[in-house]
Amino acid sequence: MLRDKNLVPLSRQHQHALALCVRLERAIRGGEIDLEAWQSEIEQQFDTEISIHFAAEEKELFPVAARFLELQPMVTELLAEHALLRDCFSRAAARGLDRESLGNLGVKLARHIRREERQLFEGLQTIMNSQELAALGAALDGALSNASKACALPTEATRL
C-alpha cells in the first residue's frame, strides 16, 4: 500500500534511522569498528531527530491508533519498545555499548521501524478516512517541527 501523505514525515525519518541501522550492520560484519564514533553518531541522531520522532508518535500517533480496538495491543508494545530503545540510546550517549550491544541496538531499531511501517501505518491507512488522516498529519507536522530536516552525515570513522 502506498504511504498516505500525512504519514510521510514519519516514514522519511524512519528511512534516516534505517540507513543508520544498515551502515552499522555492515560495519559490524566488516570487522573492526570505532565504538566511540558510532556511539557519538547514534547520540547525535537521537538528539536531533529520533527523540522528537518518538515524542511525536507518543503524543499524536499512538493515542489516535489506540482508539481502534484492533491496534491497541500493538500500541502498547510499540510504547514498550520506545522505552527499551531510549535505554539503548542513553547507554550509547554514556558510551556504554560494546560491539554486541551496538549491533543489538541496530537490530531492535530496524525491527521497531518496520513494525510501525508495515503494521501500524498500514492499519491506520485502512481504518481511518482522509479527513482523520489529514487531522493526524497536521498534528504530526506541529509535533515534528523541531526535528532536524536533514539526515545526519556519517563521520569518517563510521563511513563504509
List its traits:
about 160 residues; mainly alpha; Four Helix Bundle (Hemerythrin (Met), subunit A); 5 helices; elongated
Count the strands?
A: 0
- CATH-defined topology: Four Helix Bundle (Hemerythrin (Met), subunit A)
Cα distance, first to last residue? 32 Å
- What is the level 1 CATH name? Mainly Alpha
Sheet of most strands: none
Shape call = elongated
Rg computed from alpha carbons, rounded to a whole number of angstroms: 16 Å
Low-confidence spans: pLDDT under 50, at least 5 residues?
Answer: none
How much of the sequence lies in strands comes to under 5%
Oligomer: single chain
Per CATH, which architecture?
Up-down Bundle
Bin the helical content: over 70%
Description:
The protein has 160 residues and is an all-alpha fold. It has a single domain (8-143), classed as Up-down Bundle (Four Helix Bundle (Hemerythrin (Met), subunit A)), CATH 1.20.120. It is 75% helix and 0% strand. The chain is elongated.
Note the topology:
Layout: H1 8-30, H2 35-66, H3 72-93, H4 99-127, H5 130-143
Helix pairs in contact: 1-2, 1-4, 2-3, 2-4, 2-5, 3-4
Question: In brief, what are we looking at here?
Answer:
By secondary structure, the chain is mainly alpha-helical.
